[in-house]
UniProtKB/TrEMBL annotation:
Enzyme class: hydrolase
SMART domains: PGAM
Entries under PANTHER family matching the protein: FRUCTOSE-2,6-BISPHOSPHATASE TIGAR (PTHR46517:SF1)
Encoding gene per record: cobC
Name of the protein in its database record: Alpha-ribazole phosphatase
InterPro entries: His_Pase_superF_clade-1, PG/BPGM_mutase_AS, Phosphoglycerate_Mutase, Ribazole_CobC
CDD domains: HP_PGM_like (cd07067)
Length: 197
């Protein structure tokens, strides 16, 4: 089984380096350009299934990179980015200044601390894990998943022995394409191709 993980193209929130997950924003011009590059790189692959989150930025990326007449997008809310609650739309400096208690609590226990009006990383990880394990039980040869940086990094953490601390030691940039292979009961990260080198 080949699982292709694509992080959506850039949004203004990415460009401005703010924390966001449930904020449902569209791609910016650069994000649409990145999606066009992805399209050229994967156009020869015939996917058996295509999954996206329910967020605009992921669906918009999928529509650009795929032939809409050929594929049905399966939207799955388990692929939505982590809900950042009161941190949504704010940058690092603003959180330290205006949400110092919550920021400190999150920094001290980022896995278990539930951001007010949001979710904890553990809650987020468990729903991503649930989706991914369901995919692994399937019989498809080639699957495309268009999702978010946090989702993809969580899948990496799962593959690398469910070591959640790995989350902060790896990157998933806008437009990256990762190929995950699952064969003979072994799952591994085969390659990660950046959209722009």
């Amino acid at each position: 089984m080949n699982i292709y993980l694509v992080r959506h193209g850039e949004t203004d929130n990415n460009y401005n380096k703010t924390y966001y997950g449930k904020t449902d924003c569209s791609l910016n011009n650069n994000g649409r350009y990145q999606a066009s590059i992805i399209k050229n790189r994967i156009e020869k692959i015939n996917f058996d299934k295509v999954f996206t989150s329910k967020m605009k930025r992921a669906k918009e990326t999928a529509h650009i990179i795929l032939d809409d007449s050929k594929y049905e997008l399966i939207e799955d809310e388990r692929l939505n980015e982590m809900n950042m609650g009161i941190f949504e739309g704010k940058d690092h400096k603003e959180l330290e200044e205006n949400y110092s208690v919550e920021w400190k609590n999150w920094c001290n226990n980022w896995k278990e601390y539930k951001i007010p009006n949001g979710e904890s990383y553990i809650e987020f990880y468990e729903r991503v894990k649930d989706f991914f394990e369901e995919i692994l039980r399937g019989k498809e040869k080639d699957i495309l998943v268009v999702a978010h940086g946090g989702v993809i990094k969580s899948i990496y953490s799962y593959i690398l022995g469910e070591n959640l601390d790995i989350f902060w030691k790896i990157s998933s940039r806008n437009g990256d394409i990762a190929l995950i292979k699952y064969e003979y009961g072994n799952i591994y990260i085969d390659s990660i191709i950046p959209v722009e080198i």
